[in-house]
């Protein structure tokens, strides 16, 4: 590959350096393009645009590869834990046993919420969507912790990151409790990160709660699968909000808002609702035809991806985990059979083959979460819980980059040219 690219506009030619990463596509550094040509590039969905350097996560969409700091997602999901993957994303290397124990202890010491913050829930209607509550309560965290919001201070960034990772399970569990009218359950630091979340969600003061180890392992694996994913929409939102120097808790609240959309993290809720609407395998061909119909806004939720043009490796692990959870809980759900047959039919349909549409992380996750007992409205809140470590790791990477500047895209202006104001009596 050449080390520079040239661009000819009219009779003027300009050159731009080509940079290579450790793996993956090279980039053409066009930072001087506007100054030299007077033109902007145009890439509304950022389909061909790298916004930053990053060493956290690598995705090869054609091969269906996902690496966190070089480690394949399948191996991390099989052999690691969410706390260990969180340490890896934040620090760049797998921890020693002492390092992992110390990190886990630190996180466990930040699981409680300020009692004033618990009052915020009372302002919501009981039927408020948990993601609306997550946006509000996490944003409200920016009104606390004035002792550690100097983002130029690595120690302040570290404690804010730990607080966010530690408090998201408590915030998400409280959102669920509030929606079902049950009392909040305080964290129990004798449990694992994920076991504590299960107890805060499904435990009640009237009874002893026993964590089911198979469910705990399955949910911990689901958190690993959702931890980080390169420069997706919500991560890019966090980076852009953080580039102005905004409060870290407010930046994560912005990421939660973006993740909520059905085209992004909200797809797990939409996918299970879609599978339930299909109901039985005989209805699948009708929905596949709807998904292919340009005049029908219906899309197969949990299918397709901006980057993966092969099977999302996370969906592979997720499908395997469905079977484990069903066996452990001795449950079944006809919706899983619908999902399996829908996948089979779609993957053999020329439309999906030609457009390289495969199941993504959201296609099977809802089947598992529903079997565990979560309502569909909680699915994206769980995605946000797990993705928080990715958001804070990406935010830290950006803030500590000496070349970091505030993000400020330009535009192709298509509005009216300058014209004089007209008084209302003369319009
Ligand atoms: C996540 O970015 C990330 O990494 C996100 C994520 C993460 O971990 O952060 O991986 C999590 O958000 C996964 C994606 C969850 N979303 C869904 O499952 C919603 C359904 N999928 C689509 O809306 C869509 O596939 C997107 C939004 C995921 C990707 O859209 P793109 O890259 O903008 O692609 P596109 O919409 O331009 O689609 C390309 C073509 C189009 O047809 P043409 O206009 O070329 O004729 O494929 C079609 C689309 O109509 N298409 C689908 C489809 N997805 C794309 N047709 C039917 N059903 C679908 N699901």
List the helices and strands and how they pair.
Layout: E1 4-9, E2 12-19, E3 27-28, H1 33-37, E4 57-60, E5 65-68, E6 71-72, H2 73-79, H3 82-91, H4 97-108, H5 115-118, H6 130-140, H7 154-180, H8 193-202, H9 213-225, H10 233-242, H11 248-259, H12 267-278, H13 284-292, H14 313-329, H15 334-347, H16 350-354, H17 362-372, H18 379-399
Antiparallel strand pairs: 1-2, 2-3, 4-5, 5-6
Helix pairs in contact: 2-9, 3-18, 6-7, 6-11, 7-8, 7-18, 8-9, 9-14, 9-18, 10-11, 10-18, 11-18, 12-15, 12-17, 14-17
S-citryldethia Coenzyme A (SDX) is lined by residues 45, 229, 232, 263-265, 267, 291, 299-307, 355, 357, 360-362.
Which features would summarize this protein structure in a list?
globular, 427 residues, mainly alpha, 6 strands, 18 helices, binds s-citryldethia Coenzyme A, single chain
Please describe what this structure looks like.
The chain is mostly helical and 427 residues long. Helices cover 49% and strands 6% of the residues. The chain has helices at residues 33-37, 73-79, 82-91, 97-108, 115-118, 130-140, 154-180, 193-202, 213-225, 233-242, 248-259, 267-278, 284-292, 313-329, 334-347, 350-354, 362-372, 379-399; strands at 4-9, 12-19, 27-28, 57-60, 65-68, 71-72. The strands form 2 sheets. The protein has a 3-stranded antiparallel beta sheet with strand order 1-2-3. The protein has a 3-stranded antiparallel beta sheet with strand order 4-5-6. A hairpin with a 7-residue loop joins strand 2 (12-19) and strand 3. Helix 12 crosses helix 17. The longest helix has 27 residues, at 154-180. The protein is globular. Bound molecules: s-citryldethia Coenzyme A.
């Amino acid at each position: 590959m050449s080390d520079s690219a040239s661009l000819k506009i009219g009779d003027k030619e300009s050159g731009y350096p080509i940079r290579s990463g450790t793996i993956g596509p090279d980039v053409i550094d066009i930072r001087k393009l506007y100054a030299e040509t007077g033109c902007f590039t145009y890439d509304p969905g950022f389909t061909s645009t790298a916004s930053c350097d990053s060493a956290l996560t690598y995705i090869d969409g054609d091969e269906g590869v996902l690496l966190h700091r070089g480690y394949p997602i399948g191996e991390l999901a099989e052999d690691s834990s969410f706390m260990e993957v969180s340490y890896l994303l934040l620090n760049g290397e797998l921890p020693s046993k002492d390092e992992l124990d110390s990190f886990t202890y630190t996180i466990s010491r930040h699981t409680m919420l300020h009692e004033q913050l618990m009052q915020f829930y009372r302002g919501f209607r009981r039927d408020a969507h948990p993601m609306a509550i997550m946006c509000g309560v996490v944003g409200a965290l920016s009104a606390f912790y004035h002792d550690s919001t100097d983002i130029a201070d690595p120690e302040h960034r570290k404690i804010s990151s730990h607080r966010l990772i530690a408090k998201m399970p408590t915030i998400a569990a409280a959102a669920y409790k509030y929606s079902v009218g049950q009392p909040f359950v305080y964290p129990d630091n004798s449990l694992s990160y994920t076991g504590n979340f299960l107890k805060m969600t499904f435990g009640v003061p009237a009874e002893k709660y026993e964590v089911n180890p198979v469910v705990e392992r399955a949910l911990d694996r689901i958190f690993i699968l959702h931890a980080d994913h390169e420069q997706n929409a919500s991560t890019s939102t966090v980076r852009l909000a953080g580039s102005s120097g905004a409060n870290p808790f407010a930046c994560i609240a912005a990421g939660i808002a973006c993740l909520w959309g059905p085209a992004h993290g909200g797809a797990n809720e939409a996918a299970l609702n879609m599978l339930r609407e299909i109901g039985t395998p005989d209805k699948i061909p009708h929905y596949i035809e709807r998904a292919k119909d340009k005049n029908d806004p219906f899309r197969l939720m949990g299918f397709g991806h901006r980057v993966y043009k092969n099977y999302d490796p996370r969906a592979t692990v997720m499908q395997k985990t469905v079977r484990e959870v069903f066996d452990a809980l001795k449950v079944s759900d006809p919706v899983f059979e619908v999902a399996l047959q829908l996948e089979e039919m779609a993957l053999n349909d020329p439309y999906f083959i030609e457009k390289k549409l495969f199941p993504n992380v959201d296609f099977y996750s809802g089947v598992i979460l529903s079997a565990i007992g979560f309502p569909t409205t909680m699915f994206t809140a769980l995605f946000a819980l797990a993705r928080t470590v990715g958001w804070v790791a990406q935010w830290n990477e950006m803030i500590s980059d000496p070349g970091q500047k505030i993000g400020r895209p330009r535009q192709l202006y298509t509005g009216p040219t300058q014209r004089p104001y007209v008084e209302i009596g003369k319009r």
